[in-house]
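Chain A, query sequence.
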Amino acid sequence: METKSIMIVGVGGQGTLLASRIIGNVLLSQGYDVKLSEVHGMSQRGGSVVTYVKYGDKVYSPIVEKGEADIVISFELLESARALPYLKKGGRLITSLQRTDPMPVITGVAEYPENIAEKISAKGVEITAVDALALAEQAGTAKASNVVLMGVLASKTDFPDEVWQNALEKCVPPKFLELNKKAFALGKESI
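Chain A, predicted structure.
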């Protein structure tokens, strides 16, 4: 199998690392060689963060270059636009509709761009945009929007549900497991 690449983007504190661990666990359980990156960016300051997941028969590096990502998963709308150059032609973008103002917007130097999802779709990109924050709050906490997006991703893959459930059990602390399983189910059902 050729190597496949997933790029996960967001803002510090949104749970990109947990998401990459869940995906990595699913892929390992299916027999793939998997490489994960560390978080790149200003994760403790609300800045952009990126993690990479690559999988296949044999993977040598986790880094995803421009035009190489089969899937981009974005936890914040503006980050999806920033990551677009990394998506390969025919790739898939899964994004939350959540907006987190970057510092130039907070200070009044810039305005948050409007209609980002529509503009991306107009470029011919296959985009799935969901209100992951609202679904996470429905599950019990806004912090589970990352797992909502894992549910959306699961709905777009052929991996069995029990594989995803096992990954959640291995990666999520027991006291938050049921809440995250609910968030995952809401994300999967939203598609």
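The first strand starts at residue 4 and ends at 11. Helices lie at 16-29, 77-83, 103-106, 116-122, 132-139, 145-155, 161-171, 177-189.
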